[in-house]
Design a protein that fits this description.
The complex is a heterodimer. Chain A is an alpha/beta fold. Chain A has 2 domains: about 160 residues, P-loop containing nucleotide triphosphate hydrolases (Rossmann fold); about 60 residues, Alpha-Beta Plaits, CATH 3.30.70.1510. Chain A contains 11 helices and 14 strands. In chain A, strand 1 and strand 2 form a beta hairpin. Chain A is globular and about 75 Å long. Chain B is mainly α. Chain B has one domain. Chain B is about 80% helix and about 0% strand. Chain B has 10 helices and 2 strands; from the N terminus they run ααββαααααααα. In chain B, strands 1-2 form a two-stranded antiparallel sheet. Chain B is globular. The chains are: A alpha/beta, B mainly alpha. At the A-B interface, helix 2, strand 6 and helix 3 of A face helix 1 and helix 4 of B.
Chain lengths: ~300, ~260
Amino acid sequence: MASEIVVDKLVKRFGHATAVDAISFSVDQRETVGLLGPNGAGKTTTMRILAGLSPADGGTVQLAGLDARTQGREVRRLLGVVTQQDGLDVEISVRENLTVYGYLCGLSRQASATRADAVLTFFGLEGRANDEVDALSGGMKRRLAIARAWMTRPRIIILDEPSTGLDPHSRARVWENLAELKAGGVTVLMSTHYMEEAAVLCDRVAIMDRGRILALGPPRALIAEHAGRGAIEIRCDEAQRDAVRAALTAIAVPWREMGAVFSLPDEGADLGPVATLAGVQVHHRPAHLEDVFLRLTGKELVDD
Amino acid sequence: MTEFRLRSVAGVVERHRVATVRTWKVALTWFLIEPAFVLVAMGSGVGQLVVEIPGHGPYSHFVTPGIIIGMVMFHALFDSAWGVFNRIQQGAFETQLTAPVTVTELAAGEALWGGIRGVISTLAIGGLAILLGWFPLSALPVTLLVSFVVGVQFGVVGLCSASASPSMSALTLVFTVMATPLFFFSGSFFPLEVLPDWVEPLAWIAPLTPGVHLARGLAEHSLDLSHALCALYLVAFTLLLFPVAARMLRARLVK
């Protein structure tokens, strides 16, 4: 299948810091690819370059066969972009955010108005059409931002952290809308630091850290390749945490800690010294993407 | 070099049209109520004490073109300095750039809106002044044109300020250090000749002065070479500053 997005040796520096370090990847037509990584991994910078909001320092980006550097306007005609800040205009109504954007993109006032009503209905916002943007919940604002990007029926959608900061219910609604768009045949590049989001929405996931792509593949394949033996979960009393940490350090395996639960990839290491500590339970569980990240980087994903 | 498209500029202006129509009740107070207080206080209040300005006639007639053009400046700055700064902070400008629109078109749309706001302002306050008998109807059409250019001029000034301001408090300097002094020292309220000799030339190069001088010349039906020079200065100032404003906005938005 033809590639809709081709990124080749893309480089971006801010002063002496290299935000994107010669990454290459491609996204097929109708495919959804997620960039997964902690803050500072280079996800947002990569997406801003693709959206034409940031000039690259090296490498090339092609979208639908167009060169992003020299054909920015043509590229943006095919793109729907949802930036991390929803970027909504708070001085105009919910519906006007859509109509004004549609008109800016070249639709006639009439066509933009008709399209806005259809899009509002699709995103379940028709009841809020004439409300102030600030009266919307965080989840609704997010959906409105995605709705705005969908005004021109773009071939490609670029989404920067579509559900960050949303409650589980709102997140599920955003995912539902995105799944519908995807079913409609649009190509999606998104960033996230939620493993679950990547696993639910993405056909393939690029695991990023410090401006590089460490691994790229379908979520299940990544798990099978990098954490195929599953993961170990260690539960202990608060009082035992230091002892568990000391034991794990001695065994020299990477782990992450959430509360008093330790999680580590099952690499066949002998956990005897931990298991024998008083009040400590050791379980084996199937691995997920978070374990892949830990395995590849030796650190936790969410670092903020 | 990407081509410049007027349709994109119209798209940027459309946002302001929609926002203004939406808030028309509040907009009415900006365009008419507040400037009416200034006009009546100066024309009727101060005009009672200062009966006549030598060579210019009644004070109310003298001060009206100054207030008309001063208000154009405030209107243009309000949207292009405050408005643009706020929308940069809220990410709304970034959103506009995700459309097939260039930074130059975005800047042009904002500057053009400054001109349109200037025209609306002059229609409102000029209309009131005509009813009061302080401004001749015959001078209105060309004064609208001057208002448009002054509006674009300060729209461009506002864009530079908004793009350069790191914070809201820095942006207030545009009003405290620039707009308010300009409003009072550009010949709006008294002839520049009364200023100390060393200040007068400075007042003549202040960017609001040419607009005020032109509007007054039109109102008094006495145009001479000085007005032609003012028109030239006004247009040159605006045309030269626009590319600077577009570059500053690009530096702020595209990193």
